[in-house]
Amino acid sequence: MISSLDLRNQGEKSLLQKIAMHPIWSMVAAFGCYFCVYGFRKPFTAGLYVDQSWHGIPWKSVLISSQIAGYMLSKWCGIFVVSGITWEKRARAILLSILVAEIALLGFGICPKPWNVLFLVMNGLPLGMIFGYIQGFLEGKKNTELYIAALGSSFILADGVSKSTGSWLLSLQIPETWMPFIAGLLFMGPLVFFVWMLTQIPRPNVADIANRSERIPMTQADRIHVFKMLWPGIIGVSILYLGASLLRGIRSDFAPEIWKYLGYSSVPSLYSQTEIWVTVGILLINGSLVLIKKNKTAFFLSLGCIATGYLLLIISGLWGLNYLPKFWLIVLTGFGIYLPYLTITTSVFERMISITRIKANVGFLMYIVDSIGYLGYNLLLLSAGFLFPEWVIPKLFFFWIKIIGIAGVIISFLTAMYFFRKFLIKKTALLSLKLDNAAS
């Protein structure tokens, strides 16, 4: 016989499943989980590391470049690992990655300079795959854009909050080398809770699969086939993502220096205040793409959003410094950078797979562009001091947003033209096949 306790447990489980099916559950789980991940990655950038260098390279650039090196390696590995991992193993992989990252921050605090940079490489290596693990819970569903918009928006706000947390800990006289480890401890408990929320998210249903195609782990043959089929478009999107990644990295990692350049002293709350505006705006824009049911319409509208973002960067670079309040200038650059960056993450690859019906998942395509983005940013960090010895980073930033903005608008147009022809040819081929079948 079934006891009353068993019946009550079954009822509770059923209620939990019903709650977890609501879109808000997936949005909160994704947003909260990746928000907490930034607590293990970004707080150290709140330090200024004044008058510290290594072989002529500013020490902060060395630290950022070291973590990015681990992150970059993680992205290259993620092309294979993230695209091939099963649903059941994702939550375990997130928790293991966080544990390794926090142990690395402990090593960063213990080990003397300059060898402690090796622990930042170790810190970045597992963290780089977590976005893909979370994304796997969200893709291939009717509300995917909404879910991944929440996921992507999390790191806009988390970037500011994690630096604010770092600045707050430094104000408590915690040393710059120990501050990242302490910050990670503060985020550990909430992260475990949000990972549990992720495990309750239901898999795509029959209607989702019919509309968006089934998302399954990919083999090496699958990866090669997808790249051969769409390589010009993938390269175009990768270049667009690279441009946004370079500017995002500078704006994020050198935020204290940019604010100082604009005439503001270090105010921890500034980092969070600007990013709240950017987060809300990007979430509304990218999340609204879920309302567009036709995959092709949503896809080309996404490319239009990317071009719009780069246009905002041109405006910021040409007129922002002279005509905008500095607070709103930083907000506008945030919109200009994150609109292309997160539209690619949120919608472009999701709709591309839905249109072509190829055997693929978003993780594979995202980690191609992500690995290129982080490789480019790391090379920039290591070479900027030698290529532009007389220029400070903030000055370079406001110069580059004009150049990259113009290039981004042009490449957006060329990429849209490629996909228009690609999808037109496919539609013509399908129509021809139907006519041939009808005639026979």
Write the element-wise H/E pattern from the N-terminal end onward: HHEEHHHHHHHHHHHHHH
**What is the count of structural domains?**
1
Helix content: over 70%
Q: Separation of termini?
A: 62 Å
| Number of H/I helices | 16
Widest sheet: strand order?
A: 1-2
CATH superfamily: MFS general substrate transporter like domains
Beta-strand residue percentage: under 5%
Number of strands: 2
According to CATH, the fold-level topology is Growth Hormone, Chain: A
Shape: globular
Uncertain runs: 1-10, 429-440
Mean pLDDT, rounded to whole units?
A: 86
Structural class: mainly alpha
Briefly summarize what is shown:
This protein has 16 helices and 2 strands.
